[in-house]
């Protein structure tokens, strides 16, 4: 999906990644992240948000909860949104302030106290029961925790596995009951996804309309303004003005940090590509060669790969991928090589939209590519734990 864009806009990343694999420094099934470009992307996002009067939380799940990356991004976007409480604890222990926890995954009952010990800015709740748990834990710590209500409407678009939230008919009654709890305060509302790419541009979803409708309803019902209207999904420099015009106060860039939102398959975006995936030819059967898998993400829309032992050679050796059935485990990735001569051990280079935290991959963080002094800063597993 991003192979051509990455090669044209960040060839040094591709070149160095191939070099590292051929030298044996990194193994197949490794994502290589360009730390300097990620930092520059974060700075661009922060500046665009400042101009639009908005605040951002960094999302790190797509880069495998990587603490090295999070610390670099924090220079521009200080606090993080955690997709689940395990990510929240991992980032907090690495010194990253927690901005938003509980969305898309609620905090399990046994983990509420551990999360509150790190004083997140806001916690999203889907139910009265979860709000009560947080209230009790916050009261025991003698402070009040700000909450976001996840709101849903009848026409909203919801990904499978992401169900839950307050239905429109219960917004007011639930809010009033939560407001009466001693240890919490409703700071705002959130929904997901609020923006999506329609094949041409980033556009609002019905969920965004639900979010703004909930804001108005709750502000009238509670007789006070809400502090935060959090509208995640597809947050990038290109979408921040749209978020602002629709009434959002907060965005949550994730793929924009690596230049891999769907919009970034087209050149001209402020954020530059900062991630590639490296594998290796394992074996061949007829017109199909197989590369080691482990990092395939079903929604990646991978189409092409490049094969060879250096980037110059690989430019003329692009091949299409075999489609992998949804129920299959990606032990290998099939490549339609035809009659092309292919050797075991050759590097295979990919660039696509991913979520590293759901893979079995390793992650190499590199810096100095654009100053002529490239180096590996660290090698991690898919959950941000150091391997080197």
Automatic annotation (TrEMBL):
Q: Which residues form the YhfX-like C-terminal domain?
A: 276-376
All copies of the Alanine racemase N-terminal domain together span 34-262
InterPro entries in alphabetical order:
Ala_racemase_N, PLP-binding_barrel, YhfX-like_C
Report the leader peptide range. Answer: none
What Pfam families does the record tag this protein with? Ala_racemase_N (PF01168), YhfX-like_C (PF21279)
Name of the protein in question: Amino acid racemase
Q: Which organism is it from?
A: Kroppenstedtia guangzhouensis
In the record, what lineage is assigned to the organism producing the protein? Bacteria, Bacillati, Bacillota, Bacilli, Bacillales
The gene name on file is yhfX
